[in-house]
Amino acid sequence: MAGHGLGLDGKEPPYLGKGNNVELGEGMCFSNEPMICGYGEFGVRLEDHIYMTDDGPCWFTEPSWSIDDPFNLDG
């Protein structure tokens, strides 16, 4: 699973992953959860949140695009 819908119940449909054919529409909110794992050693999962507009997806908060600049301080 790459993410899930957000609502009053927290994690809810649509679940974003292989085999899900739900068309995303304006007003829907969902998470994007990339993960890096060293099995048996460590795991890091980021959880970014996105909402759909009539022009496409928008971030609630802009995610980090670089491991060297995790807080996007370099612009």
Beta-strand content: over 45%
Number of helices: 0
Instruction: Look at the helices and sheets and give the structural class.
Output: mainly beta
Reading the helices and strands in chain order gives EEEEEEE
**Overall radius of gyration:** 14 Å
Number of strands: 7
Distance between the termini: 30 Å
Largest sheet: 3 strands, antiparallel
Average of per-residue pLDDT values? 84
Strand order of the main beta sheet, please?
3-6-7
Compose a concise summary of this entry.
The protein is mainly beta and 75 residues long. The chain has strands at residues 3-7, 10-16, 29-32, 35-38, 42-45, 48-53, 56-59.
Please characterize this protein's 3D structure:
There is one protein chain. The protein has 75 residues and is mostly beta strands. The protein has no helices and seven strands. A three-stranded antiparallel beta sheet has the order 3-6-7, with no helix packed on it. Strands 1-2 form a two-stranded antiparallel sheet. It is globular, with a radius of gyration of 14 Å. The model has no long low-confidence stretch (mean pLDDT 84).
What characteristics describe this protein?
45% strand; 75 residues; 0% helix; mainly beta
List the helices and strands and how they pair.
Blueprint: E1 3-7, E2 10-16, E3 29-32, E4 35-38, E5 42-45, E6 48-53, E7 56-59
Antiparallel strand pairs: 1-2, 3-6, 4-5, 6-7
